[in-house]
Design goal:
Order of helices and strands: HEEHEEHEEEHHHHHHHH
CATH topology of the largest domain: Fumarate Reductase Iron-sulfur Protein, Chain B, domain 2
Strand order of the largest sheet: 2-1-5-3-4
Structural class: alpha+beta
Number of helices: 11
Strand content: 5-15%
Shape: elongated
CATH class of the largest domain: Mainly Alpha
Number of domains: 2
Distance between the termini: 56 Å
CATH superfamily of the largest domain: Alpha-helical ferredoxin
Largest sheet: 5 strands, mixed
CATH architecture of the largest domain: Orthogonal Bundle
Helix content: 25-40%
Length: 254
């Protein structure tokens, strides 16, 4: 059963309380603090965090918005795995009656469970993950064939909502501060295949450097943990092929 399933909670039926470890601190340091909250059937990890903040310690800092799996802002590390806490049921996340909640890995910590997303979005810009218009507002809209191979490739990545779960899951990001990361590279691949984008050369230049697509070790953590079931590893493989073909094309023409 996946995280969104409604399993019968062995924990909730066996006891009326849940012990949870929550990270407290900032970028300079911190520690896990232990809290006891009521254990309820169909309880999400975000419900647990909210209970701690609303009923036990109002100074607990965390980020959330929609609560229904649309915005991705509630992403945190749950027992060492990056997840949307609003769609992660305690029943499915608890391991050996243990629940540990921490801020997203690979990002600076603002305070407690709130991670600083600036480096994540800076790398989108670094990967040329911004639209490069091919026409002005005064030109007619370019027709797009939804069945074309390029459009299909582009469409596979457009449901990314920038939650940074893939970024937190990536061991290459953890080991290489320069690595652009799976979300930024997937965005670059999406635009590279978009017929309305005029930045293909700029994109290939941006993703072929020392922090680019060829740093990916193809371990697949990004694709495994993506809550929207996207496949950043496939997109990165596409960029590897495109940059390699571009390099040898230039060499052949020189």
């Amino acid at each position: 059963m996946n995280d969104t399933g409604l399993a019968v909670s062995n924990l909730a039926t066996a006891t009326e309380e849940l012990s949870v470890s929550v990270w407290r601190g900032d970028q300079s340091g911190g520690r896990f603090e232990q809290f006891t909250v009521p254990a309820r059937q169909n309880q999400t990890v975000l419900d647990v965090v909210a209970y701690v903040q609303q009923h036990i310690d109002p100074t607990l800092t965390y980020r959330f918005a929609c609560r229904v799996g649309m915005c991705g802002s509630c992403a945190m590390m749950v027992n060492g795995e990056p997840r949307w806490t609003c769609r992660t049921h305690v029943n499915n996340a608890t391991k050996e009656n243990r629940l540990e909640i921490a801020p997203l890995r690979n990002l600076p910590v603002i305070k407690d469970l709130a991670a600083d997303m600036d480096p994540f979005f800076d790398k989108w810009v670094g990967a040329e993950g911004v639209h490069h218009p091919s026409r002005s507002r005064h030109d007619p809209i370019a027709p797009i064939d939804p069945t074309s191979a390029h459009r299909i490739e582009a469409s596979e990545g457009i449901e990314c909502i920038n939650c940074a779960v893939c970024y937190a899951a990536c061991d290459t990001v953890a080991a290489n501060d320069d690595y652009l990361g799976p979300a930024a590279l997937q965005r670059a691949w999406t635009l590279y295949n978009d017929a309305k984008d005029d930045g293909r050369a700029a994109i290939l230049e941006a993703v072929s450097g020392k922090g680019g697509c060829h740093n990916c070790h193809s371990q697949g953590g990004c694709s495994h943990y993506c809550p929207n079931e996207l496949n950043p590893m496939k997109a990165i493989a596409g960029l590897k092929r495109a940059t390699t073909a571009s390099f040898f094309g230039r060499k052949g023409n020189s």
